[in-house]
Each structure stands twice: as C-alpha cells, then as structure tokens.
Specification:
By secondary structure, the chain is α/β, with parallel strands linked by helices. It is 28% helix and 27% strand. It contains 15 helices and 27 strands.
C-alpha cells in the first residue's frame, strides 16, 4: 500500500467570495457577543462582533477613499496591536491585497520588500521600521477610518489574489507567497481535524497580533466559528499566561513550542479549570515538552504541521490524537502523500511530505517567480521539502528537512540569507550558518566564519542586529580555520552542525 491519504470530498469554495466577509459572517447574528478580548492583569479591551465588523468595513471605506482600487498591493508595517487584524481584514474586504510582515524586520529588509512589491500604500506604525517612501498611511489615519460608513464587501472569484506572505527562500532571498481568497475556506478542515473548535470556545493565542500563526489560529478561525478570541496584551511574559487564561476563562490555548517551554520553567503546576487542550504549531513540538505540559496542567497538546504555502494540513485532534511523537494525520479533505523518486512510496518508507495541487489552501505561487513555483511541484504534488514516513493508519512522522532551511521560533530562515549579510562584515573571509542543538530540545542559529583572527562577538551581534530581523540573528559565532567543503566546492552545513554538536556533547 502506498503512503497516500484517502481523497475525502470537501465542499468547494462558493462564488462569488470574499475572505473578510467569510471571517465575519457570524457578526450578523452575534452582534453583541465578545469577538475579541485583549487581556491584561488589570482588565481587558473588548470588541463585540458588531464593533469588529463596523471597524473592518469602515477601514475598507477609508482605504478606498485614498484612491486605492481592488487588486492594489498594500504592505503592512504595524505592531502588536488590534490595528493589525482590523487593517488586514479591511484591506481584504475592499478587494485590496494586504501583505503582513514581521515587525522585527529591519529597514534594509523592508526596503528590499518594497522594491519587489512596489506597493500602492504602506500601513505603518511609527514604532515599526519602515523606509521613508511615498504612500505611507499612518496608524492614526487607520484608526480614524473605523468610524466611516461601511464599505460593501468586494465579492469576486475565490481564485483571485487575496493576500501575500513572505517566507524565506532556499536561494537566500525571501519569497512572496501568493494566496487566493479561497485559502480561508480550507481552514475549516482544521476545526475538527485539529482544534475541536466550537462557537462557545474562548481561544487564547500567546502570539502577537502581527504573526500569521496568531492571525489565523488565534483570530480569524475563532471569528469564522463565532467563538471568542483572547490575546494577551503586548509585553505579557510567558510566566503570566496561566493566570491570564484563568482570568479570561480560556478553553483552548495556542502557542509555539517555545512558549510552552517558558511557562513550564516557571510553573510546576498549571491550574486552568476551563482549559480543554493546547495547540502547537510553527516548529516541531518536543515530546518532553508535551509530556511535561500534560503532567503540569492535566491537558494534552495537539500539534499541527504546515507551512506558509499551505498553512497546516497534518494534525492530531481530540477525536483522533497523534501517537508516538508523530505529526498526526492528514486533515479530512486533504490529499497528502509521501513522495519518492517514482511517486508515492509504500507505508513505512521515507519520502517527501507533499500536498496535491487541488488543495484549496495551497498557494497560487511565488510572486514574480514562475520557475521557482514550478520547481516546487512534481507530477501535480507540492513538495514541502520535509521528510517523513507514513504508518498504515495514516499518521505521518517527521524526519527533518531535505535541505538546509532553519526554524527559529516558528519562522523558517534561509541560511543563505544570513550568510549573505554576515560575509560583508569587515574581516570575515567566509561564513556558514546552520542550526545547532545546544541542549536537550533547544537549538539556535550559529554562524561559523573564517577570518585572520577571532572577531569581536559583540560587534558581530550588533551588525546582525542592524541588518537582520531578530529571529534571523545568530546566537553563536564560531571562528574556524576553514569551512568544510564538498568535492564540488559546496559548503557542507550539516558537517558544521555535526562537528559543533560532537565537540559540545
């Protein structure tokens, strides 16, 4: 038998369609219900469904009044505030194409994105790095739009471009991933296949408003279902999250593995009476963290696997838990396979995790890069670049990357991108970057470099801070007499990793 999930039917996305209208469809019947609470120890900022919809549609009106037209690209440089989802959905509602970006990006990194995208407008909070270019719309101007009369939803073909998100590319240049409006329709597969999400749930996500994991799992999915989204106020420490969950009556908690680890460092026992379970995504959840959380809280964590090009499509759930440290099962409606040189491989055989091209959550392609898009597909399968093995019951176990891509706090990072910045530092003659394990379940980005003599690490760190987003910055700098190279002159990053870990074992 081949490692291929069954082709379960999933209702096609209706047409005409608008992503923001779909997310806020429940507002018509749940007007006075709390859609969002921004939780702090001294209280909460709350938004009802009616207020949320009014603010989103008013924002759409304001953006269109600036002269923007459906299809225009709008770059988002906003911080960890409610301004982010309101502007995002407002742009989508107007038929514009929002491009959310991480607030941690430096001005040089954003300038490169601006050059590629040529956005018609940039939505900017002055506290977030942004080049001084034309078309900037301030956060104060965005807030003033919320009270404007509501715009009509821009309805259209669900296959039309809806939004763009950036992910690291294997070439070292970040890739602009284009998604259709229909991508939100596919997220319903997660409601049973991962979340066990219901209208009466109160979902707390530990991430910032301006992280796509938070935007989907923490906000848009609860709103689509009519549930209440809970977001901790900016600056909340991980150690304070259990108390906030008790205060807010959270029933589901979502976070990256690192947040669970930080909470467990401060709490041996976690008492959250209404909590049913936790959710984890962004990077592989260590089994030790999963077990420790279960012991401390009495609740399980259900993990999901996905990527920028297709969100999450493998997961465990309360109805179908994963076992043995596996990623879980293909969600109902997903067509997933483990692909080898000749197509799907037999059960129990290593292959590349792949999603079939008809998946409604799959990207349209990479902006301005048709060849890169074509390279990701093999006989109709989107190749993730991650290796796995499928058991006879359909569970998939993750075996690692088949390239050198790194994962930092849920963000995929290209080593080439980091290397290209560091090699310009005075004195460095060559550099290789990879992810190394420094202790059990903890890994960091390390930069191995050659130079006439070891360089000042503080100065190297400052240079990285000025040129790379925080999550891309190395945490270790190692001077070597030479870098390991293959017979073809190619840098052997895996040898760097193996050598460091063997020496520091």
């Amino acid at each position: 038998m081949l490692s291929l999930s069954p082709s379960d039917g999933f209702a096609p996305c209706p047409a005409p369609f608008n992503m923001a209208a779909h997310v806020l469809a429940k507002a018509a019947t749940l007007g006075d219900k709390i859609a969002l609470s921004v939780i702090a120890p001294d209280g909460a900022e709350t938004w009802t469904y009616a207020a949320l919809e009014a603010a989103v549609r008013g924002t759409a009106t304001g953006l269109l009044a600036l002269g923007l037209v459906p299809g225009d690209i709008v770059l988002m440089r906003l911080g960890n505030t409610v301004d982010f989802p309101l502007a995002y959905l407002g742009a989508l509602g107007a038929g514009l194409v929002p491009v959310p970006t991480a607030a941690a990006l430096t001005e040089p990194e954003v300038s490169a994105i601006v050059e590629t995208l040529q956005p018609k407008a940039i939505l900017n909070d002055p506290a977030v790095a942004c080049p001084d270019v034309a078309g900037v719309v301030t956060v104060d101007a965005l807030r003033a739009m919320r009270s404007l009369p509501p715009a009509d939803w821009h309805m259209g073909d669900p296959e039309r471009l809806g939004y763009i998100i950036y992910t690291s590319g294997t070439s070292g240049k970040p890739s602009a991933v284009m998604h259709a409006h229909r991508a939100i329709w596919a997220r319903q597969m997660m409601f049973d296949g991962w979340y066990d999400l219901h209208e009466d749930d109160r979902v707390m996500h530990a991430g910032a408003f301006n992280w796509t994991y938070t935007l989907g799992t923490g906000l848009m999915d609860p709103w689509t279902m009519g549930a209440t989204a809970l977001i901790p106020a900016a600056g909340t420490a991980a150690a304070d999250l259990p108390a906030l969950m008790r205060q807010a009556g959270a029933s589901i908690f979502a976070a990256a593995p690192g947040v669970y680890r930080q909470i467990l460092k401060q709490h041996d026992t976690i008492d959250i009476p209404g909590l049913r379970h936790g959710l984890s995504a962004g990077e592989k959840l260590p089994q030790a963290v999963r077990s420790a959380w279960q012991t401390a809280s009495g609740t399980p964590i259900f993990e999901a696997y996905g990527m920028s090009e297709c969100s999450t499509f493998l997961s465990g759930s309360p109805a179908r838990p994963a076992s043995g440290g596996s990623l879980g099962y293909p969600q109902a409606g997903r067509r997933v396979a483990l692909i080898g040189p000749d197509g799907p491989v037999p059960y129990g055989t290593e292959g590349t995790i792949a999603v079939y091209k008809t998946d409604p959550g799959l990207m349209l392609g990479y902006l301005g890069a048709p060849e890169q898009t074509a390279e990701k597909f093999q006989d109709g399968w989107f190749m993730t670049g991650d290796q796995g093995v499928m058991a006879e019951d359909g569970q998939i176990t993750y075996l690692g990357r088949n390239d050198d891509m790194m994962n930092a706090g849920g963000f995929r990072v290209s080593p080439i991108e980091v290397e290209q910045k560091l090699v310009s530092y005075p004195g460095i003659t060559a550099v290789g970057v990879t992810q190394v394990t420094v202790r059990a379940d903890v890994s960091v980005i390390a930069a191995f470099y050659t130079a006439d003599a070891p360089l000042d690490e503080a100065a190297l760190a400052l240079y990285a801070q000025e040129n790379l987003a925080r999550y891309k910055q190395p945490r270790l700098y190692v001077h070597l007499p030479e870098l390991p190279m293959g017979a073809n002159g190619k840098l052997l990053r895996r040898a760097l990793r193996a050598g460091y870990e063997a020496q520091n074992d």
